[in-house]
Specification:
Structural class: mainly alpha
Helix content: 40-55%
Strand order of the largest sheet: 1-2-3
Number of domains: 2
Low-confidence stretches: 1-18, 137-144, 345-350
CATH class of the largest domain: Mainly Alpha
Length: about 350
């Protein structure tokens, strides 16, 4: 079918594409006009113009489509290819996206005739496919900095073992903080096993767990309804449903809910992680406890709770989960943001 994005990496069939000579000639004319526009109105240097044109031509070759056939989905696929397969630096990807955005601005400008020409000859018009100036940044994903890279399996296991050891030690000594340490150990397991950010974990309520048809054996803990940590101005807070994929973590939560949470005097409140003072465990408190355990183990001091979320994505992908499934689980808008986690390989993952 014409415009099928699933075929974006291969040329369209002759039935879908206008005769190549006619379409290619119009595309070349667009690029020539854009070059003149940059030279005369923007005073761009020839080297800059040449680099931008090369980016646009490479994008066209990748999609196998012409500008009047391009869509934001084509852009997502290309950025994913650049970041995951070619491993281009975020700054390079941003530069490529800027070139495409400038070209789309030119061919869609109302004072140009390209829209009318495309509509007349091919029945479709070019559109601005680079709507979000920040889109390229999101493709850096968890590798945007050392504080967002995935923890290895060995690091995750050591961290959880240490958290459990703190619970046992506090209970053995009759320490009054045993309850909080048990709660915190469970928080970290939930962050990892459901791919949450610290703020998402903090906002959880006891009623956010629910059954799911795909995993009936997990009962009421088959899925987790998560409030998005980022809210779009003027719109209600988004939610996503995260299907439970790690039964061992479900066991940990089930035990916490049944045996530990009721011991808090404030357990009648909705907060899944109550505090002894009657409040809700805050994101900052999660970060501070994580840092204390991290430093006690001598792990990389750049690690943050987000690295557990990144590890969730990376480990699911490494274990063969579909990219679209992981993307939906973590609530990413762009698939390449999730796909960037695939760069963590078993060599060194523990």
């Amino acid at each position: 079918m014409c415009g099928d994005v699933s075929a974006a990496k291969r040329p369209e069939s002759a039935a879908c594409r206008p005769p190549r000579s006619s379409a290619q000639a119009l595309f070349d004319a667009m690029l020539d006009g854009w070059s003149r526009h940059q030279r005369t109105t923007q005073r761009c240097k020839s080297a800059t113009i040449g680099l931008r044109e090369d980016v646009v031509r490479r994008f066209a070759r990748f999609t196998g489509a012409y500008p009047w056939q391009w869509s934001p989905e084509h852009l997502d696929l290309w950025l994913s290819h650049l970041t995951v397969e070619l491993r281009r630096a975020p700054s390079t990807v941003r530069g490529y996206q800027s070139a495409l955005r400038f070209f789309c601005e030119y061919v869609t400008a109302p004072y140009q005739d390209w829209t009318r020409e495309c509509e007349t000859r091919f029945g479709s018009v070019p559109v601005q496919i680079c709507q979000d100036d920040r889109a390229a940044d999101s493709f850096a994903g968890p590798f945007a900095g050392p504080g967002r890279r995935p923890m290895t399996r060995e690091e995750v296991q050591r961290f959880f073992d240490h958290a459990d050891d703190q619970v046992e030690e506090a209970m053995r000594r009759g320490h009054k903080g045993a309850l909080a340490r048990y709660r915190d150990a469970t928080v970290f397991k939930v962050v990892y096993a459901w791919g949450l950010s610290g703020s998402e974990a903090s906002a959880l309520d006891i009623g956010d767990f629910q059954p799911h048809a795909d995993v009936p054996e997990l009962g009421r803990f088959g899925a987790l309804s998560v409030r998005a940590s980022r809210r779009t101005q003027g719109l209600p807070q988004r939610r996503r449903t995260v299907v439970s994929t790690m039964p061992w973590a479900v066991d940990a939560v089930r035990e916490y809910v049944a045996e530990v949470r009721p011991r808090y005097r404030t357990s009648l409140s909705q907060a899944l992680w109550p505090t002894e003072r009657g409040g809700r465990l805050r994101t900052r408190e999660i970060e501070d406890r994580f840092a204390a355990y991290r430093d006690a183990l001598g792990l990389d001091r750049a690690l943050t709770p987000y690295c557990l979320r990144s590890a969730y994505m990376a480990h699911l992908l490494m274990d063969g989960a579909a990219l679209t499934f992981v993307q939906e689980q973590v609530g990413h808008r762009l698939p390449a943001t999730t796909a960037s986690c695939a760069r963590l390989t078993d060599g060194g993952s523990g």
